[in-house]
User: Which sequence fits this backbone?
């Protein structure tokens, strides 16, 4: 009677099918977006260098790792909400939400696609930054964990932002504020003690603080970083973030 | 199997949807679709059709009322809705650079077909809907009509038990439109239930088993095309193209379904014919056609307030 009911709907297979579908949907733009991400990251690494004369080793480490952190934060809090808002505006979100696919598989697809577009830029800027400022980065396997935790601890907020936002332009404006905060008002590209005390207090509850600390801790082992603590805090944010996105995507108006 | 599933494929009961802003988009809609039925949903813009469809698909939560698909409460279990319903949304859904064949194949896979089966199904549908020449065209670059045909192919690729098609023929060329109607009629004959939202009554009429005319979030009329036609059964329909400004015959009543369209009482056929003949002799008549009332007439009469049938009778 209803053949569609007896079929198996494997969320893992769906996830790979959705990723393949999305890469095909954006086949014309993948290379371009990757290149732009490389240029942006590279621009930050060099640009801040011009802004600050006589860069010390510590400052250089903050610049290079801070740029990578900024790019990681951008994945979940800027690119993902923009990507989803665009999908909402162009009718894609509703189209996919009427297919018999797991909501988690759909959101994971969006996150992974956005991450795939950004990761080459991040790797590139770390490499070039380290060579340019002559700092040694240790490729610690923990860094992979930091990347995943940072992206997922913020992705849920990004999803919530896209679903609540009435329009792509509103999402874009919000994401610009977020970038602004991360670049100039958070202990990401600079040490916490350079911030006014109220911003230092605010930073305690902001995920980018812990992402930056974990990136520095895993890549440079810079004294004063608390890698283990940051990883735990990011895990906590991640759990909250996933619960939030699962709730938001099931919400029906 | 052997069990007869007695429940309607789609049963909507007293459905009300009030948006947060206060707009009452559905004000108590009830309808019931049996297996293999092609059911037309007609109504002007803002009548509440899309709101109804979005609730059936589980994208919106009703304020009150029930929606049952195969007897399953899909307000509580929207996943069941999505497995059972193939959907073609209205207007644009921009799927960017994915190719026509990739879309059909991917959706078939997501609808649970094994890859080999999905591949065969894709080839069959490309052939059946005359899309083979466009298989590698990206959805973004395809013309509106090809995009809708591809979306239609994707909607039917997974053997959905219930199809919800929102304006399937928009932008589609006449030959493919024919193909599309034939396919819908064929799906109906093979037991697929179709909820068809359309404005194209003249064409849809041939495949629709029953229809509802809705406006203001309510069903104004419901029935088979034949039973609805009885609303204006005493009347005839006249399409008229005149050369210049000519006063129309007093028996003619402007039909709100379009300019140059009129309804008149069939007892006035003789005087109207005489009037048309005189116009023709004066060279003022470019074209005319007299026929029974169309669904467009019934729709216009049901929705429009301007026509008072009683005046004619």
Assistant:
């Amino acid at each position: 009677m209803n053949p569609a009911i007896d079929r198996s709907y494997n969320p893992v297979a769906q996830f790979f099918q959705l990723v393949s579908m999305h890469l095909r949907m954006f086949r014309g733009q993948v290379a371009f977006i990757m290149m732009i991400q490389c240029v942006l990251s590279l621009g930050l690494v060099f640009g801040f260098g011009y802004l600050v004369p006589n860069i010390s080793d510590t400052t250089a480490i903050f610049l290079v790792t801070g740029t990578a952190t900024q790019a990681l934060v951008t994945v979940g809090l800027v690119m993902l909400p923009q990507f989803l808002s665009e999908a909402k505006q162009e009718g894609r979100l509703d189209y996919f939400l009427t297919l018999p696919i797991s909501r988690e598989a759909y959101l994971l697809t969006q996150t992974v696609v956005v991450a795939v577009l950004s990761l080459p830029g991040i790797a590139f800027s770390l490499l070039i930054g380290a060579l340019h400022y002559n700092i040694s980065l240790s490729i610690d396997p923990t860094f992979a964990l930091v990347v995943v935790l940072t992206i997922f601890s913020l992705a849920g907020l990004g999803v919530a932002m896209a679903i609540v936002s009435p329009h792509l332009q509103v999402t874009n404006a919000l994401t610009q504020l977020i970038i602004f905060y991360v670049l100039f008002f958070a202990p990401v590209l600079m040490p916490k003690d350079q911030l006014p005390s109220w911003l230092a207090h605010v930073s305690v509850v902001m995920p980018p603080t812990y992402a930056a600390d974990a990136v520095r801790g895993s890549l440079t082992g810079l004294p004063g970083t608390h890698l283990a603590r940051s990883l735990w805090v990011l895990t906590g944010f991640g759990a909250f973030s996933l619960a939030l996105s699962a709730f938001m995507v099931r919400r029906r108006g | 199997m052997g069990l007869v599933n007695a429940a309607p494929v789609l049963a909507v009961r007293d459905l009300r949807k009030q948006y947060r802003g206060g707009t009452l988009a559905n004000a108590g809609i009830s309808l019931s679709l049996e297996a293999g039925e092609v059911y037309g949903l007609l109504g002007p813009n803002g009548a509440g059709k899309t709101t109804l469809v979005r609730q059936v698909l589980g994208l919106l939560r009703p304020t009150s009322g029930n929606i049952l698909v195969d007897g399953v409460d899909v307000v509580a279990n929207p996943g069941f809705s999505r497995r059972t319903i193939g959907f073609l949304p209205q207007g644009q859904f921009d799927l960017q650079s994915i190719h026509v064949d990739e879309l059909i194949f991917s959706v078939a896979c997501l609808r649970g077909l094994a890859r080999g089966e999905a591949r065969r199904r894709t080839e069959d549908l490309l052939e059946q809907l005359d899309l083979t020449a466009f298989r590698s065209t990206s959805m973004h670059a395809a013309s509106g009509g090809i995009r809708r045909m591809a979306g239609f192919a994707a909607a039917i690729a997974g053997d959905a038990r219930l199809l919800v098609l929102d304006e399937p023929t928009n932008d589609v060329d006449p030959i493919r439109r024919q193909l599309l109607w034939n396919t819908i009629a064929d799906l109906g004959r093979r037991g697929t239930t179709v909820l068809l939202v359309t404005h194209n009554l003249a064409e849809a009429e041939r495949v629709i088993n029953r229809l509802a005319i809705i406006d203001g979030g309510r069903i104004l009329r419901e029935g088979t095309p034949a039973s609805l036609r009885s609303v204006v059964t005493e009347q005839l329909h006249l399409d008229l193209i005149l050369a210049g400004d000519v006063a129309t015959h007093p028996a003619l009543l402007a039909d709100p379904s379009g300019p140059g369209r009129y309804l008149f009482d069939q007892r006035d056929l003789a005087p109207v014919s005489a009037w048309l003949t005189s116009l023709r002799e004066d060279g003022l008549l470019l074209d005319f056609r007299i026929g029974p009332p169309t669904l467009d007439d019934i729709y216009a009469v049901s929705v429009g307030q301007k026509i008072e049938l009683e005046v004619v009778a």
